[in-house]
């Protein structure tokens, strides 16, 4: 890690990095073939060999690493990691102080100054997500910085850097005390069961916190709610606590049944008063149309890509049709909550899918609310694609 490699940036891209763009991408690099070992420190220079910044090599999606500083005299060492982690931890003071929310993101990659990893806090336990082998080479720095600056009981990790950027199955325990799972965390007073050593997903997606709160506080009272791609039923739990007349949760995965019952029960909701269905959402849409079932609120939160026996779904190609399916079973004056975490298109494009879907069904709508990532999922203006979450609350007028 001590040696650093000089990476030459093509003239036409140099100014982008000078303006703060943090992701090193293929087209920008002159001597790509010099990149051999992930974790290598890089010194970026322009074609006249003038200093641009320092970073590291790590393959993550389409990226080849991250710029970490644009100061020539700043070293990438333990104290660099300490400073970035401390700053991130201090800037989450409102979360540390809030007894009703005990799960939040305390370090969000490039948004907090170091691309390639994130750290989440779950009531005393930390979860690190590593997105490349390159950043994993710095893991001792990260662990040391966490030991210095955070009080915690134990640390778990997810290595998300096999060839496809998928999670690598492993014992995810790193250090400290092992937790008794589930860890029961709170979010705006609501309980969630969290499992940090049970595959890639832990039971709750923290980036939807503000969306869940809106659903509970503003949209659920007295309403019938369909939650599609429901996973552990987090949106259903918030809707139920917001006074929903009934929620229906639909997910293809067998585990979603017991997981949803668990989340309802933790919050003292009678799960038998609600419907939980293990089935393909697309079949559920057909079933609802056939039975003429309509809902006051329909929540759409699909994975970016999904394949089931009959369907192949990709958010980029099929979201418009998904909205049309939802329109067909939403009451007039009802609400569609459309969400995606796909980074490949922006809010404007997402809105165009909504517009197209209503046009094609001769409907009318109004956008009531827009959400992107919450405050603890810090992003930087220089890297807008880091703000991947897009959620729209849409009123179906007719
Ligand atoms: N909305 C959830 C997160 C969804 S994760 C939340 O807020 O917690 C995506 C989920 O979609 C997974 O649980 C997966 O099992 C489910 N899924 C994928 N394809 C599906 C399909 N065709 N029908 C139903 N569920 C599907």
Please characterize this protein's 3D structure.
By secondary structure, this protein is of the alpha/beta class. It is built from 11 helices and 21 strands. Helix 7 links the parallel strand 13 (224-228) and strand 14 (246-251). The strands form 5 sheets. It has a 7-stranded mixed sheet with strand order 15-14-13-16-19-21-20, with helices on both faces. It has a 5-stranded mixed sheet with strand order 1-3-4-5-2. The protein has a 5-stranded mixed sheet with strand order 6-7-8-9-10. The termini are far apart. Helix 2 crosses helix 5, helix 6 (209-219) runs parallel beside helix 7 and helix 10 crosses helix 11 (347-360). Bound molecules: S-adenosyl-L-homocysteine. S-adenosyl-L-homocysteine is lined by residues 205, 208, 229-232, 234-235, 250-253, 256, 280-282, 301, 303, 306, 308, 311.
């Amino acid at each position: 890690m001590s040696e650093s490699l000089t990476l030459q940036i093509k003239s036409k891209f140099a100014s982008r990095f000078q303006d703060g763009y943090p992701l090193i991408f293929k087209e920008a690099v002159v001597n790509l073939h010099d990149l051999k070992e992930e974790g290598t420190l890089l010194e970026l220079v322009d074609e006249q060999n003038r200093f641009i910044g320092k970073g590291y090599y790590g393959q993550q999606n389409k990226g080849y690493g991250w710029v970490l500083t644009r100061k020539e005299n700043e070293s990438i060492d333990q104290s660099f990691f300490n400073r970035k982690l401390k700053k991130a931890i201090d800037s989450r003071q409102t979360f540390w102080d809030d007894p009703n929310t005990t799960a939040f993101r305390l370090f969000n990659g490039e948004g907090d100054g170091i691309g390639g990893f994130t750290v989440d806090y779950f009531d005393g336990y930390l979860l690190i997500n590593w997105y490349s082998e390159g950043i994993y080479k710095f893991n001792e720095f990260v662990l040391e910085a966490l030991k210095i600056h955070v009080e915690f009981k134990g640390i778990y990790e997810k290595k998300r850097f096999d060839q496809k950027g998928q999670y690598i199955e492993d014992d995810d325990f790193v250090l400290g005390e092992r937790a008794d799972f589930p860890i029961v965390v709170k979010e705006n007073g609501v309980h969630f069961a969290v499992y940090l050593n049970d595959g890639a997903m832990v039971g709750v997606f923290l980036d939807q916190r503000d969306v869940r709160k809106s659903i509970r506080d503003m949209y659920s009272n007295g309403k019938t709610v369909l939650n599609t791609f429901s996973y552990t039923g987090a949106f259903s739990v918030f809707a139920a606590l917001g006074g929903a007349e009934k929620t229906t949760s639909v997910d293809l995965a067998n585990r979603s049944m017991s997981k949803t019952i668990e989340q309802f029960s933790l919050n003292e909701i009678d799960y038998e008063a609600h419907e939980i269905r293990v089935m393909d959402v697309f079949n559920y849409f057909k079933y609802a149309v056939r039975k003429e079932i309509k809902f006051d609120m329909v929540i759409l939160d699909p994975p970016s890509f999904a394949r089931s026996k009959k369907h192949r779904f990709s958010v980029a190609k099929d979201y418009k049709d998904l909205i049309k399916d939802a329109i067909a079973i939403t009451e007039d004056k009802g609400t569609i909550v459309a969400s995606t975490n796909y980074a490949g298109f922006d809010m404007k494009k997402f809105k165009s899918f909504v517009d197209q879907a209503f046009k094609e069904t001769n409907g009318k709508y109004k956008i009531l609310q827009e959400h992107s990532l919450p405050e603890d999922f810090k992003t930087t203006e220089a890297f807008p694609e880091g703000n991947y979450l897009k959620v729209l609350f849409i009123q179906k007028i007719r």
